[in-house]
Specification:
The complex is a heterodimer. Chain A is an alpha+beta fold. In chain A, about 50% of the residues lie in helices and about 20% in strands. A 6-stranded mixed barrel of chain A has the order 2-3-8-5-7-6. In chain A, a hairpin with a 2-residue loop joins β2 and β3. The longest helix of chain A has about 40 residues. Chain B is globular. The two termini of chain B are about 25 Å apart. Classes of the chains: A alpha+beta, B alpha/beta. At the A-B interface, α11, α19 and α23 of A face α2 and α3 of B. The complex binds adenosine-5'-triphosphate (ATP) and magnesium ion.
């Protein structure tokens, strides 16, 4: 075997631990990158496979008037048409809990079709009788019976079950029992004849599955004689768009996070190799003086890079695969329980691998070039620049002086290490900030509620009647309110919203104002919604329910966990709810403990439709948070591992040149505690400074990460709480301090006689 | 009864199949306050001898007794105390700690001795004065010349007032004038404190200043 190769193998053997650490950090960065790209693809393919299987229509055509199905049938001759379905689609409205909600009715012949827009029964049974219907999950709960009005014809429908439908797949994403109908549409599927009996024997909605993309336009042009109002291709369908957005977010979010780790990986690998090459300078000089070419020497040092990269790449692939699986599974679960399809995709791994390669190559080439630039003479007489930090302060303790001065033995290197350790602790700490902010926010939002019991009526009632009806004993005050679910729009932007109107909103809950003022004579908007609409205080948005709409001026923007909430006074929406009427009442009790007994005392009350206790809302909210919380905690724990690896690697590098010092101290017969104390001071100071630096890093990264997470999970305002600052400080300090184990082991194992001799031999 | 007695000490090193016997039943006996010098070609075992006497390495067999205490019977912990309290080393390459100033390097030798900071600091200053380098007390080793570093190393060995000072080529890097000065210091310390010295050197000029001179040859000491 080549001598230089043999020399390198021995060195690698000696530094295996540092190499493993660098490889681990690089693997992590690579895994993040892989996960971002891969999971984005997995989400896309899984969703597409699911939508294929459930028959999301390739083309959905709406007609602006009903047409005889026979007439349409004669047009469906294009050979590219595989299958189709004729439906009748009508808007209606229903009265639920005494308030009017808009309902979309879709009549179809066969609810059991599997080849096109397949309906998946979630509970109950499929409709079979004329007056039966099934609801799409995620919409407003209508109860077992619903009286639906279409063009003043009333249909008394039995709701027999809930279905999931590919065309409205994400309908239930932002909903839960706590947040009624936030964005969710109320859609009923029912027999075609039922609708036709009140409208006429026509259809106005055509779903088509076609053979391939190219023929779609031909299919559409073949139908051009029909009164078409809209043609939606599969890729523009809302389900496809939302899935696409989810996939895009993964693509942006994780790779951006990975950039932080790529930087950390680059610096720590660079420092490891630089340290090695520097300490080898003299041997390199010797090799050069023996006539071995620089190219040859450089190549042999590249072996370090090759080993580091190979380890990092293998680990990176494994981690990348595992993360992708976990994260895609979670995201798909949120998008209506789409089963995961994990096809193999080489590209993300290739990108991750090239990135890791780039990092390692840069980290290896630069130090080698620096050293090989020296001529033989310089290299031979090279003394690693040991710029001593001339800090002569009298500390009255030699171990303290030694520890602190050792920490700053090479100030620029020390600063790089402190920053890089702080950054990696900060990356971990940022998840703590997010967890804490999310929890604090949750507490704040639930404690912001001043009411104890929320009662919804069976039908609308006058304010005066409501207040007097709920005036009996434990009630301190009763605040009538109305809720409306509708659409808000500003310019081209619009979104489903949940509007709460009451005469005394401030009596119901408190708000954290972000912009404008808490003036309920206008609309106070949740921040997320304001951002979506691009609305600012002073601007006017349009709020629409069914076919009625009215403009409301935005007066304030508040933090709100329910991202689509609008708060306003009831006279702003008089036109819709009617003067002096309300659909429910918030009850404030003398003492919150009475809530449960009070609510059971209402059980026989014919006016009461539903009762919600404040405590229950908190529980539901907490449940919603828990799933995202565990993800944050998992990231925190995993990031701490990286921080530990970085800290250990830094400590190993900066203490590896201490052999002579240890040896001298031992030969002077000093107690071992002296050296241990010096190390404790050194690593302790390092841990303290980087932990302190980690706090601002954590706070900043938390802000970056939450803004990336915002749309995917929740809107969380990041707060700098003392408890988290202390947690990050303490955990950071402890984790960095763990790295002291390595120099301690070295002191214990050092063969000082050998080191004394090595020194002589140099 | 001699102050230091080294009796039939052997030490050999194994390197694979090959065994090098460095000390082969070596005997040495010296009185308190004596200065002896050991010469010998490179690789003859001078450093090994000093390491064995100073408790850095253990001999394979034989006995070493200093001031009535048997060094060869000590466990590691006792050897550590022995090095701290009884022995002063002056290494061939000084081995000063780069991050400690001259004065702090000297004070380092008093670490583990039951003295307060002021006392340690005072002693170090007195010692630096003795080796004539007090004005450089706040400099770091890098900021000192080789000769100055050697004097600091000497002060470090002297400050704890050990029974025996073992010096490996202490004047190797010194010019003639400094060398004379250093030897002068040794003589003075011997006068004041009755310290004993074993000095390893190739430098025959030193012979005039020592009590006895030995040559290490084939693992034993031969007086010359
Ligand atoms: N750990 C060891 N393993 C093997 N051989 C060793 C070891 N230590 C010393 N030796 C051998 O012991 C012999 C004596 O070494 P020592 O360092 O004592 O010589 P020296 O007289 O001090 O030489 P110099 O004048 O060059 O300093 C040498 O031949 C050396 O190779
Ligand atoms: Mg020697």
């Amino acid at each position: 075997m080549n001598l230089t190769v043999r020399m390198m193998l021995r060195k690698i053997q000696k530094r295996k631990f540092s190499i493993i650490l660098s490889a681990f950090i690089i693997a992590w960065a690579m895994a993040m990158m892989v996960t971002g790209i891969y999971s984005s693809g997995v989400i896309r393919t899984s969703a597409n496979a699911y939508l294929d299987e459930t028959g999301l229509p390739d083309i959905s055509i709406s007609l602006f008037e009903g047409v005889d199905p026979q007439q349409v049938q004669t047009l469906m001759t294009d050979p590219a048409i595989k299958t189709y379905e004729f439906r009748l689609r009508m808007d209606g409205h229903a009265i639920v809990d005494g308030k009017e909600i808009s309902v979309q009715l879709i009549g179809l012949k066969d609810p059991f079709r599997t080849d096109i827009n397949r309906l998946l029964l979630l509970d109950g049974r499929m409709f079979s009788e004329k007056m039966e219907a099934v609801a799409v999950s995620g919409g407003q709960v209508l109860g077992d019976h619903a009286k639906v009005l279409i063009n003043s014809v009333a249909l008394n429908l039995n709701i027999t079950g809930t279905v999931r439908s590919p065309e409205f797949l994400i309908n239930d994403l932002p909903t839960s029992s706590f947040i009624p109908g936030s964005g969710g549409l109320t859609i009923l599927y029912l027999p075609l004849e039922t609708l036709q009996s009140s409208i006429g024997p026509v259809i106005n909605d055509i779903l088509i599955m076609s053979d391939n993309n190219a023929s779609k336009s031909e299919v559409i042009s073949g139908l051009s004689s029909l009164p078409i109002s809209s043609t939606i291709l599969r890729e523009d369908q809302q389900t496809s768009v939302i899935v696409q957005m989810g996939a895009d977010k993964m693509m942006v979010m994780l790779p951006s996070i990975s950039l932080v780790f790529i930087f950390i990986g680059l610096v720590s690998t660079f420092m490891t190799i630089y340290r090695l090459v520097l300490s080898d300078s003299r041997s390199i000089g010797v090799l050069m003086s023996l006539g071995i070419t620089r190219k040859h020497i450089a190549t042999s040092y590249l072996m370090f890079g090759v080993v580091t990269l190979s380890l990092g790449a293998i680990l990176g692939c494994i981690l990348g695969y595992a993360f992708t699986y976990t994260i895609s599974n979670m995201a798909l679960g949120m998008m209506g329980a789409i089963p995961i399809v994990m096809g193999f995709d080489l590209l993300p791994f290739l990108i991750g691998l090239s990135l890791a390669t780039l990092v390692v190559v840069v980290a290896v080439i630069i130090p080698i070039t620096i050293v090989l630039r020296h001529d033989v003479h310089d290299a031979l007489s090279f003394v690693p620049r040991n710029r001593i930090w001339a800090w002569r302060t009298n500390l009255r303790s030699l171990s303290l002086a030694l520890g602190l001065r050792n920490l700053f033995r090479e100030p620029s290197r020390t600063i790089i290490f402190l920053v890089i350790i702080a950054l990696s602790i900060g990356a971990a700490g940022s998840w703590m900030f997010m967890v804490d902010s999310a929890q604090g926010y949750l507490e704040e939002q639930s404690s912001a509620n001043k009411w104890d019991v929320k009662i919804s009526f069976n039908g609308p009632m006058s304010d005066i009647q409501a207040i007097s009806h709920f005036a009996s004993d434990p009630v301190k005050s009763a605040i009538p309110f109305s809720t409306l679910v509708g659409q808000a729009s500003l310019g081209d932007n619009s979104q489903g919203v949940f509007l709460l109107a009451a005469s005394d909103i401030v009596g119901i809950r408190s708000f954290l104002l972000r912009q404008g003022e808490l003036d309920f004579q206008g609309a106070v908007l949740a921040k997320k919604m304001a951002d979506n609409l691009g609305a600012r205080p002073g601007e006017s948005i349009t709020f629409a329910v069914g076919n009625r709409s009215l403009p409301i001026e935005v007066t304030g923007i508040v933090d709100d966990i329910q991202g689509n909430a609008i708060y306003t006074s009831n006279d702003q929406v008089l036109d819709i709810i009617g003067e002096g009427s309300c659909t429910g009442v918030f009850i404030v009790l003398d003492s919150s403990e009475q809530a449960r007994s009070y609510s059971s005392s209402l059980s026989g009350d014919p006016l009461v439709g539903s009762i919600v206790l404040k405590d229950d809302t908190v529980t539901t909210l907490r449940g919603m948070f828990d799933s995202s919380m565990s993800l944050l905690y998992a990231f925190f724990a995993l990031n701490l591992m990286i921080a530990l690896a970085v800290a250990i690697s830094a400590t190993i590098i900066s203490t590896s040149e201490r052999d002579m010092e240890y040896t001298t101290v031992i030969s002077l017969g000093l107690p071992r505690s002296f050296q241990v104390k010096a190390l404790v001071y050194e690593v302790g100071a390092q841990a303290m400074i980087s932990a302190l630096l980690a706090v601002p890093f954590a706070f900043l990264l938390a802000q970056v990460f939450t803004s990336l997470l915002e749309d995917a999970v929740f809107y969380i305002p990041v707060v700098l709480s003392l408890a988290t600052v202390i947690t990050v400080l303490v955990i950071g300090f402890l984790f960095i301090s763990i790295s002291i184990i390595w120099p301690l082991r070295r002191i214990k194992r050092i063969d000082f006689v050998k080191v004394l001799r090595e020194r002589i031999s140099s | 009864m001699s102050y230091l007695s080294v009796e039939t000490v052997t030490k050999s090193f194994k390197n694979g199949d090959e065994t090098t016997t460095v000390l082969a039943g070596l005997n040495l006996s010296m009185g308190r306050g004596e200065i002896i010098m050991v010469m010998g070609p490179s690789g003859s075992g001078k450093t090994t001898l000093i390491n064995v006497i100073g408790g850095i390495e253990r001999p394979d067999s034989g006995r070493i007794v200093l001031d009535g205490t048997e060094v060869t019977a000590m466990d590691n912990r006792m050897l550590n105390d022995y090095r701290r309290n009884d022995i002063g080393f002056v290494f061939q390459f000084y081995n000063l700690i780069p991050n400690l100033t001259a004065q702090e390097n000297v004070m380092l030798a008093l670490e583990g001795h039951d003295l307060d900071w002021t006392e340690k600091s005072g002693r170090a200053i007195r010692q630096l004065e003795l080796v004539n380098i007090l004005d450089k007390k706040d400099r770091f080793p890098q900021e000192l010349s080789a000769g100055q570093q050697q004097r600091v190393a000497l002060a470090r060995a002297l400050v704890k007032q050990p029974k025996l000072i073992l010096a490996d080529e202490p004047t190797g890097n010194l010019d003639e004038a400094t060398e004379t000065k250093v030897i002068g210091i040794l003589a003075q310390v011997r006068e004041e404190l009755g310290t004993s010295f074993i000095i390893v050197s190739h430098n025959s000029r030193l012979r005039a200043h020592v009590d006895r001179c030995y040559e290490l040859r084939k693992g034993v000491l031969v007086e010359n």
